[in-house]
Design goal:
Number of domains: 2
Oligomer: single chain
Largest sheet: 8 strands, mixed
Helix content: 25-40%
Number of strands: 17
CATH architecture of the largest domain: 3-Layer(aba) Sandwich
Strand content: 25-35%
Bound molecules: zinc ion
Radius of gyration: 20 Å
């Protein structure tokens, strides 16, 4: 299963080159055209065969992952960092992170429970004993991601770093590779950059694609663990059809179409409402005069962590079936 390799590629927001190279290599033999735009989005185009009413459909999954970047180094060789995306101090403390240079560090600090998002409390120990030694291994601005091996758990469940949103990339790659015939509509498979910093890549990619319909393929919450807040979606009940999140209210007609299609074809699915957080659809639907947009999401436990957990049942059978149509 190449999901294993896909999750382990480096791709902190703005530094996506390794993951982009990996996805490009895979897509090459399946694409009619591949564009890399100036901000780094990878756009893989499959031309449609439709004669009348042929539309442009943009499927977007972000290839960047959350992480850290070095802001300063102390005299004793500890690194200070900022977040790249939505990081929690509590989740991060005592975790290993890997810098793009390969250097590994351990996170300490961040004990203030009142402000879980104050990155100034964090330090990173790379084992250096002086500023000079540390700077020989990492430079200012050096990006790092969590370490988190791809690990099968019980049943169909797997966990890894960067499940957000390599699981979406995986689904797009599978759909692209498994399309037996050419699609009716022109289909743009977008692997976007810098989503975790505010949907930045999608804002640019949408103008390249100029789509009639936008679909974000991303993770969503899973509200089925002890102490979880209220929420409907859960692991193992099928792919989620987004109704709304913090960035978009999906086009009601598309939501209804997807739900009806899933019902008619016996595809397990669940309706998704996410109170906070956004997806690429948040950027796509605001383009130009507006773009009809929706989302297909994979319920995920511990999303922004080294151990994002999904049920492959939701991924394999159902998400891809919904997108094939
Ligand atoms: Zn995401």
């Amino acid at each position: 299963m190449f999901l294993d390799d896909l999750t382990q590629q480096f791709g902190v927001s703005g530094f996506e080159e390794p993951i982009r190279a990996f996805i490009t290599e895979f897509c090459q033999s399946h694409a009619d055209e591949i564009i890399k735009d100036n901000i780094g989005n990878l756009i893989v185009i499959k031309k449609g065969t439709g004669k009348s009413n042929r539309k442009k459909i943009m499927l977007s999954a972000h290839m960047d992952e959350i992480g850290f970047a070095v802001t300063d180094v102390t005299e004793k060789g500890f690194l200070k960092v900022r977040y790249m995306g939505g990081i929690s101090n509590q989740v991060s403390v005592c975790q290993r992170i890997q810098f793009r240079s390969g250097t590994i560090g351990v996170i300490l600090g961040g004990k203030d429970k009142k402000d879980d998002r104050d990155f100034t409390q964090l330090s990173v120990d790379i084992g250096a004993t002086s500023k000079e030694e540390a700077l020989a291994h990492v430079q200012i601005g050096e990006p790092a991601s969590y370490c988190g091996e791809f690990t099968p758990l019980c049943g169909r469940t797997v966990c890894s770093k960067a499940i957000d949103d390599r699981i979406g990339c995986y689904i797009l790659m599978r759909v692209l590779a498994e399309m037996e015939t050419k699609p009716y509509h022109d289909t743009y498979f977008v692997f976007s950059v810098q989503e975790e910093l505010g949907l930045r890549g999608a804002k640019v990619a949408v103008s390249t694609c100029n789509p009639d319909i936008g679909v974000a393929v991303d993770i969503t919450g899973s509200f089925d663990t002890p102490g979880a807040p209220n929420g409907f979606t859960k692991l193992g009940s099928g792919a989620a059809i987004k109704v709304m999140d913090g960035s978009v209210v999906c086009d009601d007609r598309l939501v209804t179409f997807l739900c009806d299609y899933a019902k008619a074809n016996d595809i397990p699915h669940q309706r998704e409402v996410l109170a906070r957080g956004g997806t690429d659809a948040g950027a796509i639907h605001l383009f130009n005069n507006g773009v009809s947009s929706c989302g297909v999401s994979i319920p995920t436990r511990y999303g922004h962590s080294p151990v994002g957990t999904v049920d492959m049942f939701d991924v394999e059978k159902h998400a891809s079936k919904l997108l094939m149509e």
